[in-house]
Write a structure and sequence with these properties.
Layout: E1 8-9, E2 14-17, E3 25-34, E4 76-86, E5 90-97, E6 102-109, E7 114-119, E8 131-136, E9 144-151, E10 161-168, E11 176-179, E12 193-194, E13 205-210, E14 216-221, E15 236-244, E16 249-250, E17 254-255, E18 268-271, E19 277-284, E20 290-301, E21 304-305, E22 309-310, E23 312-313, E24 325-328, E25 334-339, E26 349-354, E27 361-362, E28 366-367, E29 378-383, E30 389-394, E31 404-409, E32 422-423, E33 434-439, E34 445-450, E35 460-465, E36 475-484, E37 494-499, E38 505-510, E39 517-523, E40 527-533, E41 537-540, E42 542-545, E43 553-556, E44 559-563, E45 569-571, H1 589-601, E46 606-612, H2 619-639, E47 647-651, H3 664-667, E48 672-679
Length: 680
Amino acid sequence: MRIATIVGVIGAAVAAHTTVQAQHAVWAAKVVGVSSQKAEGKEPFSPEKVLGEPNATPLGQASNEAWIPKKEGTNEFIEVRFGKSLLARQVTVVENFNPGSVTSIELVDTRGQRHQVYENDSPGPIPEMFRSLQITFPPASYRTIGVVVTLDTKAVNGVNQIDAIGIADVAETMVKKEFKGEKSPVSFDSAMVNLGPNVNSKFTDTHPVISPDGRTLFFARQESPQNIGGAKDIQDVWYATLANAEKKAWNPAKNIGTPINNPDGNGVSSVSANGNSAVLISTYNPDGSFDRQGASISHRTRMGWTLPEKLIIQDYYNDDQENVDFFLATSGKVLLMAVERKDGQGEQDIYVSTQNADGKSWGRPRNLGAAINTKKPEFAPFLAADGKTLYFASEGHGGYGKSDIFYSKRLDDTWTNWSKPRNLGPTVNSPDFDAYYTVSAAGEDAYLVSARNGTAGSKDIFRISLTPTFRPEVVTLVRGRVLDAATKKPIASTIRYENLLTGEEIGVAETSPIDGSYTIVLPSGVHYGYRAESKDYLAESDNLDVTDRQKYSEVNRDLYLVPFAVGQTIKLNNIFFAQSKYNLRTNSYPELQRLVRTLKDYPQVEIKLEGHTDNQGDPALNVKLSQDRVNEVKKYLVSKGISGNRISTEGFGGSRPIASNDQEETRKLNRRVEFRITKK
């Protein structure tokens, strides 16, 4: 999905751009099925070329950037999935070359059911050399997560190409052809504002990192007498906290102290969602020595920050040890780095490394590709909380000075398919040095470093307010505490959150060791489940549906952990049924699969499944419904290899409410499935 007014060139003098608002249109993110293909992966004409927004060039000619079926026949097809589901009102198929062969378009809902919205019994050549086939229809009750396009490739001579497939929840045109000159720069609703003397000094203040909640700003100060090593200390980490959110005023900055700071050059590259973990440039050795090869992570404890531990990255090296940047995504599972490697485009390039299954180490760095990287340095990567919008500095993409700040949108999950980088324009970029761009989760304010009008001629940190059009995609910030369900005392734990539709784990976070608080950031467009994990406890999961959230919001939710002991009851909050029925919905499976794993890990444990409803309707029917529902859960567990002798069931109907039945907001809490440990 792209920002509405970004223009992506798809022809020598022709451009295509999304005209609907950013949150309303999505382009294919994954290929799940194809009838035939001339190539695979990133090769020309491969099915993956339909992913992302339209980018094939030239229009009306066979392009390397569009899919070509290998065979000719009446049932050639491609099936794609989107990064989020929509209540779709249109589907658009961009036919780059020899259009007219599409015979059917089907939408795939979140349950895997197909719904045909277009049928053409007489496919054949059309006068246009290329077209955007746009089909509009009234919104349905189901949410669209995928599309199947079927073609009769015999009906149109020559190769048939599809460049992109997208859906939108409005009927406006997704792709519009027009002649355009040079693109106008990104605009902002204010000039850059110096953060003032509480943050900036006469020394160089650089590399700002804003916490996702926007309340703490970390940065580096160079050669200050107040650095740990005094005026000869190359760089120390400092931080400032927000004093007044309305006035956007900051408290006086403080040196973060040891062990993060030492007489060498120290710098924070990113912080976790709750500000309790910091990724640091360079590695710290237990004997006090310092190594610039790599990155480290430090955690805040009751006693202060821990000695940073080295991040283990497979095949990590940097041929230019003086220039390096890292950035840990808000999800905690993606690590960006700007390093110089032998497989790069030239000098510093931006790479990505994903967390391994052990949760402790990182995979081999992968180059983001030629769309982002050039023969000159690209550095200072910042991935917005939406996980898609990348801001970075470049000396190779051209602009107003030696290095300018650009942004690009990730188009799929390969991490190598990006929209054309766009210069942020003269308001941000100047003939001087401009870099290190960071944005809070709300997306309202950006912070960056510039040499313009700095204190005593030094580099300073500035703030600039973004218009809504140019903010990253919408996210929801969730915060709360993890508590013992019996004692209500805080518990140190790990938070995991997942896409309930796919079961994919999206992110991981740690609670504060001081008060058990947590913060996670959830990009819009998904129904999430999340839970806390801690030894000797069972989790009561929670869920939050932000599928249709159009604005940044913050939610407060406490999570509970139940002691693993006989007699304890655990609510299965992420089990869902069709209304007034006992059929399990597919988004229940991640929760059920965790229960299966628990029962397999503890083969002596026996449980009782207990079903409850609200008090609406016939009490006898409610008892039957609650019994049918827990029987259905038991049936699922048995199908996964759990002995039925270990599971008893009972339906209580509406006789045991845990909340008021007067309003739907509280009444829905009474509709639940729980399990009680009867033997351990």
